[in-house]
Design a protein that fits this description.
By secondary structure, the protein is an alpha/beta fold. The protein has eleven helices and twelve strands. β9 and β10 form a beta hairpin.
């Protein structure tokens, strides 16, 4: 099948705060605002940004764990954002998720083997031998001994639990796995093992990943493309090498400059990013980054910059670094799949 595996168009999520008949207007938290991107089969798209920028909300919207306020989520060309729960059931096999906390995302009452086979038994009947064979196969894929299928999550280490979470995600043979901070709770040595495991599985099975992280060194290791989010919006989306070699948006530049470098002799000359992320309950007018941006001009305070395609294949939302050309702007979905 041609075309992207996943296509997200103008995805938006607002949360109302408070209620009551005396309130003429209910305040709204703009968690995700007008987000568009696509993911090809076998590709890894990383989403980065500070805490509170909307990364995890995007993941939950894609999985339909929360309902979108607006926008479309297309898997193989079908918009799943508007499907009923019954119609959505069959599409669950195409997408799975690996959560940030490898312990709280596992049922403590089930053994590792039961955790792995439970998703499959939601769709088909398995006898005892089939369950054990499936559990042993998937545990082997993630580098664990088949004997561990009889252990409870409390009897496993953090790295083993995360491997178990990956094995559970693989059980339905999904085309896309969404990994939300999947290695952030692990030791550095275990992180490397899990990242290499994910990359090996991608090569073997052709799985696409959406990898959400705040660790830029991890993103640089595993990603093919990187989307940078700020206050619910994508401000830059670029191939990994281009983004790390020459970031265009001032926020991307500040993120990369602030990342720790494992070289004690290196002296930093970059100016650290001042201030904090504004509240999504009351975002700034114009470009949301302008209160912290050293390049901000008057237009940035008034007008929201659109995502503009650049010659090297990236898209950027910045009046200063990526001003609009004389050509008419394209919709975000067209920019990302052109």
């Amino acid at each position: 099948m041609s075309g992207p595996l996943l296509k997200v168009e103008n995805l938006t999520k607002h949360y109302g705060v408070g209620a009551g008949f005396l309130k003429k207007k209910i305040p709204v938290v703009r968690a995700v605002e007008d987000v568009s991107f696509s993911v090809e089969p076998g590709e890894t798209l990383c989403i980065v940004g500070e805490s509170g920028c909307g990364k995890s909300t995007v993941a939950r919207l894609l999985m339909r764990l929360v309902e979108p306020t607006a926008g479309r989520v297309l898997i193989d060309g079908t918009d799943i954002a508007g499907l009923t729960k019954g119609a959505m059931r069959s599409w669950r096999r195409r997408m799975q998720m690996v959560f940030q906390d490898p312990y709280s995302s596992l049922n403590p009452r089930l053994t590792a083997g039961q955790i792995i086979t439970e998703p499959v038994e939601n769709f088909e009947r398995l006898n005892r031998n089939q369950r054990q064979a499936l559990a042993a196969e998937l545990l082997g894929k993630v580098g664990m001994s088949p004997e561990m299928m009889h252990r409870l999550p409390s009897e496993l280490s953090g790295g083993q639990r995360q491997r178990l979470g990956i094995a559970r995600a693989l059980a339905l043979k999904p085309a896309l796995i969404i990994a939300d901070e999947a290695v952030s709770a692990l030791d550095v040595s275990v992180q490397a093992q899990i990242l290499n495991l994910l990359m090996d599985l991608q090569q073997q099975m052709g799985i696409a990943y959406i990898f959400i992280s705040h660790d830029l060194s991890v993103v640089e290791h595993i990603g093919h493309r990187v989307a940078v989010m700020y206050l619910g919006r994508i401000v830059e989306l670029a191939p990994r090498a281009a983004l790390f070699a020459k970031p265009v948006h001032p926020y991307t530049e500040a993120l990369i400059a602030s990342a720790p470098v494992p070289d004690p002799t290196r002296v930093r000359h970059e100016t650290p990013l001042d201030g904090e992320v504004p509240s999504p309950l009351n975002p700034p007018s114009g470009c949301a980054f302008h209160p912290r941006c050293p390049l901000a001009m008057e237009r940035c305070r008034i007008e929201m910059p659109p995502l503009v395609p650049l010659a090297d294949g990236r898209i950027v939302a910045c009046h200063v670094r990526a001003p609009m050309s004389e050509q008419p702007a394209q919709p975000q979905g067209a920019l990302l799949t052109a």
